[in-house]
Amino acid sequence: xxxxxxxxxxxxxxxxxxxxxxxxxxxxxxxxxxxxxxxxxxxxxxxxxxxxxxxxxxxxxxxxxxxxxxxxxxxxxxxxxxxxxxxxxxxxx
Length: 93
Hints:
Low-confidence stretches: none
Structural class: mainly alpha
Number of helices: 3
Distance between the termini: 66 Å
Oligomer: single chain
Number of strands: 0
Order of helices and strands: HHH
Strand content: under 5%
C-alpha cells in the first residue's frame, strides 16, 4: 500500500468516526483544520521569502575584485574612444 492509499484510507476511517458528531462540532473541527492549513501555507511562504532575502544579501556587493571607485572610474575613462569613426559590419554578407 503506497502512502497515498494509506492517507485516503485514514481519511475515510476518520470520516466514519467523525460522522456521528454534531454539526456544530463538525464546523469547529473544519475551522481548526482550515486554520492549520493556512498557518502551514503562510509559514511556507515566509520561509521561501526569507530564503530569497538571504540569497540576495549573500550576493549584494559580491564582485570578483573589489576595486575602489577611483580605479573603476579611471578604467571606464581610459576605455572611452572619441573622435574615431566606427566601422560597422554589414549583416548582408
